[in-house]
Amino acid sequence: MQLSVATILQDSATRHPDRTAVVEDGDRISYRELWQEVLGFAAELRARGVRPGDRVAVLLPNTADFPRAYYAVLVAGGTVVPVHALLVADEVAYVLRHSGCAAVVSGGPLRPVAEEAAAAVGIDVLDVRTDRAPLPLPEPRRPDDIAAILYTSGTTGRPKGAQLTHLNLTMNAAVCAQDLLGLTPDDVVLGCLPLFHSYGQSCAMNAALRAAATLVLTPRFTGPGALRLLAEEEVTVFMGVPTMYHALTEAAAAEPRRPAALRVAVSGGAALPVALLERFEAAFDTVILEGYGLTETSPVATFNQHATGRRPGTVGHPVWGVEAGIADAADDKRIALLPDGSTGEVVLRGHNIFAGYLDDPDATAAAVVDGWFRTGDLGVRDPDGFLRIVDRKKDLIIRGGFNVYPREVEEVLARHPAIAQVSVIGLPDESRGEEICAAVVLRQGAAATPGDLADWARERLGKHKYPRIVRLLDDLPLGPSGKVLKRELREACA
To answer: How many CB atoms lie within 10 A of CB 165?
Structure first.
């Protein structure tokens, strides 16, 4: 059976050749133009020795060259290895070496890092060139062929390469575009999420191009800049992470202009505080639909869907073709499902589950048990089927023998009028085992002392839950997808 992620773009270029596919810094590229450029670069890859089954890394910013390179590798029958744009050369070299890449495609400000890493591994760095006679058709692929290898952030040790199949990615793009967002060629999606990350790659790029919608790219996100693009490009769908929603809400407070076309916003990547959701929806007169997923799940697994209802503070129901359950988090050997209302580890199965970690059968066996993928996230499902993520299993704080979930504390603190951002961690404590620490960024112009914030939290949380330690920071350490880097935060707060 022929199935390639490349057909996402091919089909839209056939059906809607004259519609705008990508907008970059005001330049508009039609589907016909983008597809011909992809075919041309695929021919260049073939001329440079890339053969079906070869792996090719892509280290590019959020420009039109990213989809050109990404789809060209797939057209040539290769496996694309998107590389984290914030890595240093040694880290990039590890990804290139571990994945066995035949070449790396790079350019712009990331080119020096790519050249240093490629030299260490002994492979070429390629420019995105599209001037060759195009390949006539994409290389045929099977559903279970590996389309992409995405390296997880790796909280301990080296990152692992999650292998995603053509079936994984084409199904996720179709579900996102059709079932979850109802995208049409008239939609305009703002692509400010990093495209090397699964959220930006699958939900923004692949889903938008699957629907023949327009993808507006920006290489660097700022609240005022995104607010301007939302209005100028008449964006209908915004996809972001909580830190982006915070920045947009703050920008909107200083700018009366509002995007008139915005019909829906999507949040993922990290838990969105309900207080922030409410502020954003009031400022922009729209709704936020929160979803949940991981790199290993292509990524979308659950979502607040029109068909099953929306409940703020939850990540909705499983998407079409996917099952979700709550399992005993302490049982590593088997999946013991728990009844609704129980807190346990979120487990998933369906068409979105990855094909395993590259050259790491032990890690794969630990992650996929009895056909279920163990997410490492703690959650609870209510009687109506809505899933709520409680926290990462490894982020659970045990204070004096009591379990404390950081997100519960964060939700309460996020409602303090002086707090812009907050993240809660556990710090080592001789008497209690761990003590609760809140790292806080204050709103611009606001004033509050650590003692004020601790007293406020004590009135609203159980005695074992409120933070005895409050650290005021200028900002929180964030990864490229907007997640708080809690390991770095613990070091900063210790």
So the answer is: 24
